[in-house]
Amino acid sequence: MADLGPSLGRSLGSSSRFMPFVARRPPLASEQHLWASEAASAAAREQALGATGSVRTLLRAEGAVVFGVALVAYAQFGAGWGMFALWLLAPDLSLLGYLAGPRVGAALYNAAHSYAGPALLLALGVLAPMPWALAGGLIWLTHIGLDRALGYGLKYAAGFAFTHLGRIGRIGRADPW
Fold first, then answer.
1. Which residues pair with 167 in a beta bridge?
2. Most CB atoms within 10 A, among 6, 59, 63, 103?
């Protein structure tokens, strides 16, 4: 027990009921000093978890809903399925950013797989009558919804397998840990 001084020590007495308030606890693992390589692996372990359980299920179901709604909207829009097939996988060109490293790859992938881009493109297509922007936004939303439904979430800089939907194992399935 730390030296509390004579007056504080006497006022608290030697009763054990005050021990939890004055006893020093050992530092938590997160408070201990980590070398740079250990800190990187600790960050990777924390990022590997991502969403779990019912939250992951809800996020993947949300992706399936976005996929379905965008696909039906595109079918109603009638822009042609040739253009749809041509542009469906275009956002995956952002994977080339991983050639420059995981941090750049994750940033480019996340920029191409965020809902912000297609929402702005859809707004442009609706507000300034541009059918190509409307079709592009719907194709882009379809791609993102399909990716999320399959378990490919937004990436962390720790590597391609570390996503907000959990760690990717084989073919989009999250690892059990």
1. 162
2. 63
Contact call for residues 12 and 22 (beta carbons, < 8 A): yes
Q: What percent of the chain lies above the pLDDT cut of 70?
A: 68
Q: What is the pTM of this model?
A: 0.68
Amino acid at 84: F
- Residue 173's region, left for phi above 0, alpha for psi from -120 to 50, else beta, is beta
**Could you give the 3-state DSSP secondary structure of residue 133?**
helix
CB distance 105 to 128 below 8 Å: no
* Ramachandran class of 18: left when φ > 0, alpha when ψ lies in -120 to 50, beta otherwise: alpha
Q: Token pair of 148, please? A: 């999320």
Q: Which pLDDT belongs to residue 108? A: 96
What does the chain come to in residues? 177
User: Strand runs (DSSP E) across the chain, as ranges?
Assistant: 155-156, 159-163, 166-167
- Angle of the 131-150 helix axis to the 53-77 helix axis, nearest 10: 150
Task: Write out pLDDT tens, residues 64-122.
Answer: 999 999 999 999 987 899 999 999 999 999 999 999 999 999 999 999 999 999 999 99
- Alpha carbons within 13 A on the beta-carbon side of 164: 16
Average of per-residue pLDDT across 49-78: 89
